[in-house]
Amino acid sequence: GAVVSQHPSRVICKSGTSVKIECRSLDFQATTMFWYRQFPKQSLMLMATSNEGSKATYEQGVEKDKFLINHASLTLSTLTVTSAHPEDSSFYICSARGSPGGGNEQFFGPGTRLTVL
Amino acid sequence: RKEVEQDPGPFNVPEGATVAFNCTYSNSASQSFFWYRQDCRKEPKLLMSVYSSGNEDGRFTAQLNRASQYISLLIRDSKLSDSATYLCVVKRGGNQFYFGTGTSLTVIP
Fold first, then answer.
1. Which in A28, A29, A72, B55 has the greatest CB count within 10 A?
2. CB within 8 Å: A44 and B91
3. Closest CA to A73 of A93, A92, A94, A50
4. Ramachandran region of residue B28, left (φ > 0), alpha (ψ -120 to 50) or beta?
């Protein structure tokens, strides 16, 4: 299957700092990328959907000024958590959709575990 | 009402048992349906898509009932390696994917 990478896999930062997470589709062009957040023992919650070259669409309750998403190319999307606070500590997972044959499957990155002190 | 609802479990079953999970979705306009598997602290991985006619992949059988808006997953002859959380995923038009909270399965030796 297609491969999606995320970097970093784990980050610990101080409150008030900004953290950037990268999501890359390694062997296919991702027309759409999704960013999810997962708290312990809960399901994935979609934060935003981004299409290459256009502004991301944020889900209700997700602050676009706090979670900045850039999808500058067909293989890279970034999520920046600005002025992070302890309540932003979570598991952030990206997924990508789009393959030579199209299709509905999402391919997930391995996730980034963010801890804000 | 949640887009997708699942019984969170946990389901604890002995090796070799048959176990079934159900999932309901609220929006009749939903178009595509999937079961994903998520191991602890890992990303979800597609287990199988769910088709209207039902489909089988080895020990796994998925079924869709559009009239009642539910999806099921049946696992036969459970293996220890089947222990994971199973996520029901529903796609509406465009790029809207909705995840259930997941059902936890532990297969016991």
1. A28
2. no
3. A50
4. alpha
